[in-house]
Amino acid sequence: MDSSNRIESSSATAPRRICKCDVFISFRGPDTRNTLVDHLYNHLIRKGIFTFKDDKTLEQGQPISSQLLQAIRDSRISIVVFSPDYAASTWCLDEMAAIVDCQREFNQAVFPVFYDVDPSHVRKQNGVYQEAFISHSQKFTQDPAKVQRWKSAMTTLANSVGWDVTNKPEFGEIEKIVQKIVKTLNHKFSGFVDDLIGMQPRVEGLEKLLKLRSEDDGFRVLGLWGMGGIGKTTHATALYDRISYQFDASCFVENVSRLYNDGGAMAIQKQILRQALDEKNLDTYSPSEISGIITNRLHSIKVLVVLDNVDHLKQLEELAIKPKLLCEGSRIIITTRDAHILKVYEADEVHNVPLLSDKEARELFGRKAFKREGPSNNCEELIPEVLKYAQRHPLTIKVVGAFLCSRNAAQWRDALDRLRNNQEDEITNVLRISYDGLKYEEQEIFLHIACFFRGEREDYVKRILDSLGLYPIIGISVIAQKSLITIRNQEIHMHEMLQELGKKIVREKYPQEPGSWSRIWSYKDFHHVLMSETGTNKIKAIVVDIKEDITDCSQMVEGLSKMKDLKLLIVHQKNNHSESRLKSLSSCLKYLSWHGYPFPSLPSVFHPSECLVEMNLSASSIKSLWEGHKVLLDY
Q1: How are strands ordered across the β-sheet holding 349-352?
Q2: Which residues have a Cβ under 8 Å from the Cβ of 490 and sit 6 or more positions away?
Q3: CA distance 475 to 252
């Protein structure tokens, strides 16, 4: 049968139902569980289509449960997979009859799939189904109406438009079925995505936060917050597809930040009116008229508005949408990297979008790296290394997986080595948006944490940053609200992709010249700069751990003396006594900590009274602060 024709329908005025599921699949387990139904179910789930598939093994004759009947009633679409043994199961037949009842009562869309059975045998209950119905007629002699109900339902479905997949390529037929389901559900995004791993339980959780079934409906604002590339937009699109049918009008405004920058608040308002109210010729209206339409019409209907990628409060405030004046049952969903925006806008719920689980990360990577083919043995052993690099970050997994697709193990190893030293531009560009939106002091704090202080105690880091004049109390709060760091157990944590972003920003103009970077965090680079005497005034901060013995510290003498604008110097090294004399240290130093300082005194050309806030020379070889006498000014 052709799947491109009509859908069985009854009344166009069927009451709107709030459904818990998009699709219910009725099937005979032994026939199709591990073949067509399994593939169809997973394909639907990957598209963000919430699908119910009953996998329980049931005893013959066991009555259908009330929970299962409710699942059928709570679905927008039912698919009945007729297979050779389908009619032998009274459970399946009860499901089928309940599905036809829902089709008549609620205008539920129903599609039959004929798997290794002739549609005419289903329609007439003969052929492979004849013996089963003879058995049922003999068994239910006291209740002939039950058997007749099954026959009537089966004939009804066999006359409906569906798919005969017998002796046809299964993958292609499943694609046709899924496309029809997406079209029937009128999902905006499901037709364009195929990698929504683990999305169904996540969106179910978001639905609960929206309280769509609450008796005290009111209005509600939900914020989805998280770092770049973590999947905020993906969550919002899946949620929108799932619930938009429940509203009188709905709209999904993509990339509000870019739309606002290009055309101001009016550009966003026009997008809302076009989608939600099908308004046309909006270019002839003035800004005040546009705002008037928003206020007068949008506030009088139950509406769903999704505003994606909001990066400034004014983008919300200038829309003329007053959440408290919205019609009862209306909902606003906002995605942002900045939790502060949601707090000020008084969102009812703020959901921090989590990273993928280990299982989800592996599944997503497999889908991107191997498509339908499995990994080769040589590549299989490298998957843990890739996943360790990606750290469960969806965008990174997608980009790296796509890049490694169809490449051999040697290329994988080479690519991994390159990625560890040079983040892919596609990842960098997404993550950097939040950094570029920071003020100077906040950017400096972010780079300091990325290069030096990831995993350190918050109070320790604040003390250092305060000595540098970077206002860390407000600054750390801001970059945490923008999802660039998290504070856990009084420690500052940062995702490795963001840490790599920070280091890439420091290196980007002079990737092979550490002497021209603003920060040095690796002893290897520190040693190179000292030995080659390539340090310049561009170096502002050094935090290094010298784990090896240095018997000759003379290279430090010349190297450090060239760094005239050094403000932060933290060195941890073994106590290696040196008779060399450090010629000078930057008088711009504000924080100096050198555990195991090897020299007998501080350089005479060093004026700590000018800028220095804190100095710690624990376990040092120092005998006197300076040679001769030095006057310290009060400060």
Answers
A1: 249-253, 303-307, 331-336, 220-225, 349-352
A2: 457, 458, 459
A3: 33
- CA separation for the pair 389, 400 (Å, rounded): 10
CATH code that applies to domain 195-352: 3.40.50.300
Look up the CATH architecture of domain 21-185.
3-Layer(aba) Sandwich (3.40)
Token couple for 429: 């560009």
> pLDDT value at position 53?
86
Question: CB of 10 within 8 A of CB of 100?
Answer: no
pTM score of the predicted model: 0.81
d(CA 251, CA 64): 39
Residue 95 among the catalytic residues:
yes
pLDDT in tens, 108-137: 999 999 999 999 999 999 999 999 999 999
What is residue 584's predicted lDDT score, i.e. its pLDDT? 80
Angle 358-362-368 (CA atoms, 0-180°, nearest 5)?
Answer: 145
List the catalytic residue out of 8, 59, 95, 349. 95
Tell me the angle at which helices 144-158 and 90-106 cross, rounded to the nearest 10 degrees. Answer: 60
Q: Taking 70 as the threshold, does the pLDDT of residue 532 lie above it? A: yes
Topology, domain 438-503? Arc Repressor Mutant, subunit A (1.10.10)
Closest listed residue to residue 561, CA positions, set 533, 523, 580: 533
